[in-house]
Amino acid sequence: MIILGIDPGSQTTGYGVLESDGRNRKVVALGCLKARPGVSLSVRLGVIYAGLQGVLEQYQPDEVAVEATFYGKNVHSALVMGHARGVCLLAVQQAGCQLFEYSPLEVKKSVVGQGRAGKGQVGFMIRAMLGLRATPSEDAADALAVAVCHLQRRTLMQLVKKADLTPAPSRSGKGRLSP
């Protein structure tokens, strides 16, 4: 199975492609989509969209995992981030891939063990978990972390299904496993 992880950003969008046989994970590709400095938002969005189309076409992922937008204090930044995320979602949808979304908290918990981890901690753990020789750039590491999070969640849900467990509602609405 091939998973594409995406860390959307208005300046730089990271991507990471993982291949997994259910037990082993291998990094197939990673990188960043980035426009020249000083170009307009529409040009940056075009670079992200075209770049993701190329990645989707080249690696033909079975599933795509995208980091969900966090809510910041700066409304303008959140809107611009939403535009970048939107072109990512559009590229995935047009490629016909199944899409999964994870919050930054879920991704960090999955990779580091706690949701308030810094980017350096995420990069360190991604390097260790995937046996990389060097720590990837922050955006590429975050994208790989999203892909790892998805693989872990996918494995958990397969185990739940196999054990015939169903999620029971919880107060948070996220569900808890019960027999």
Task: Provide an overview of this structure.
The chain is of the alpha/beta class. The protein has one domain (2-178): 2-Layer Sandwich (Nucleotidyltransferase, domain 5). The chain has helices at residues 41-59, 75-95, 104-111, 119-130, 138-162, and strands at 2-7, 12-20, 25-34, 63-67, 98-102, 166-168, 176-178. The strands form two sheets. The chain has a five-stranded mixed β-sheet with strand order 3-2-1-4-5. A two-stranded antiparallel ribbon has the order 6-7. Strand 4, helix 2 and strand 5 (98-102) form a beta-alpha-beta unit. Helix 1 runs parallel beside helix 2. The longest helix has 25 residues, at 138-162.
Which characteristics define this entry?
179 residues; alpha/beta; Nucleotidyltransferase, domain 5; five-stranded mixed β-sheet; two-stranded antiparallel sheet; 5 helices; 23% strand; globular; disordered C terminus; nuclease; RNaseH_sf; DNA binding
Topology:
Layout: E1 2-7, E2 12-20, E3 25-34, H1 41-59, E4 63-67, H2 75-95, E5 98-102, H3 104-111, H4 119-130, H5 138-162, E6 166-168, E7 176-178
Parallel strand pairs: 1-4, 4-5
Antiparallel strand pairs: 1-2, 2-3, 6-7
Helix pairs in contact: 1-2, 3-5, 4-5
- Amino- and carboxy-terminal Cα gap: 29 Å
CATH superfamily: Ribonuclease H-like superfamily/Ribonuclease H
Which regions are unreliable across 5 or more consecutive residues at pLDDT < 50? 175-179
Characterize the largest beta sheet: strand count, sense, and whether it forms a barrel. Answer: 5 strands, mixed
Number of strands: 7
Number of helices: 5
Portion of residues in beta strands equals 15-25%
H/E series:
EEEHEHEHHHEE
Q: What is the CATH first-level class name?
A: Alpha Beta
Q: What percent of residues adopt helix (DSSP H or I)?
A: 40-55%
CATH architecture: 2-Layer Sandwich
Strand order of the largest sheet: 3-2-1-4-5
Rg (C-alpha, Å): 16 Å
* Shape descriptor: globular
**Helix/strand class:** alpha/beta
At the fold tier of CATH, the topology name is: Nucleotidyltransferase, domain 5
Number of domains: 1
Mean pLDDT: 90
Catalytic activity: Endonucleolytic cleavage at a junction such as a reciprocal single-stranded crossover between two homologous DNA duplexes (Holliday junction)
Main location: cytoplasm
Organism: Candidatus Edwardsbacteria bacterium GWF2_54_11
Enzyme class: hydrolase
